[in-house]
Amino acid sequence: MSLPHVLLGMLAEPASGYDLKQRFEQSVRYFWYAELSQIYPALAKLEKQGLLRSKQAPSDKGPSKKIYTRTGKGKRALQEWLSDGPVLRTERLAYLTQLFFLDEIPNARRIEFMQELRDDFAQRLEELKLIERNWASEDARFPDNLPDGELVKHMTLRSGLMKYAMMVEWCEECLGRLESRQESTGHRNSRNRKVS
Question: For a designed S-S bond to 66, which of 54, 106, 133, 149 qualifies (C-beta 3.0 to 4.6 A apart)?
């Protein structure tokens, strides 16, 4: 996946660069992240390619801002990318790379590492559960009668919910193995469970 494609998708409605950053934060941040410093150069490149256009608009706070709109060519580029099928690439997961080398530190610290990882996944899971609960309470069509645009967004949300639930379970399994090893070597560790 590339940032330009994500931006083209986000520009179904006109937006400024700052608005796009807010849309990222409110929707795709759990699986795609971008800084403003990445967004603005990508927008400039898309505009140069004719995939979007911009116009100056007054701002409530300070100088005017650029509002970006996806062009017909931009919509076709997005649809072509989507029609090409799923993009499956090897992810760069820093925490798994760290785990791969975790034998370099004492077992007690390995346990702490896995507890921290579990707690992070559990927090993300709770955030997604809250999003789903709020959505369900605000939309009577939820989940079975959502329009297509909302249905695919809910499918994405469900992917995150299932992923983080599985990751919490995996962390618990790893913690059990590490703690068993800690106990067998004569060390004691009290596991601080934060997940219900």
Answer: 54
Asked if the peptide bond before residue 143 counts as cis, ω within 30 degrees of 0, the response is yes
112 in the same domain as 76 = no
The runs of H, that is alpha helices, within the chain are 3-10, 17-26, 36-48, 72-83, 94-100, 107-138, 148-184
Last residue of a domain, one of 36, 60, 83: 83
CB atoms within 10 A of CB 122: 19
Same domain, 78 and 136: no
pLDDT digits (tens, 9 = 90+) for 86-107: 888 777 889 999 999 999 999 9
Distance in Å from the first CA to the final CA of the chain: 35
Q: Give the pair of three-digit tokens for residue 174.
A: 């790893």
CATH number at residue 42: 1.10.10.10
Which residue, 127, 153, 125, is CA-closest to 139?
153
**Residue at which a domain ends, from 54, 83, 112:** 83
Q: Is the pTM of this model over 0.90?
A: no
Nearest to 13 by CA among 60, 89, 67, 56: 67
Q: d(Cα 28, Cα 136) in Å, to the nearest integer?
A: 19
The residue written with tokens 């690439």 in the block is 89
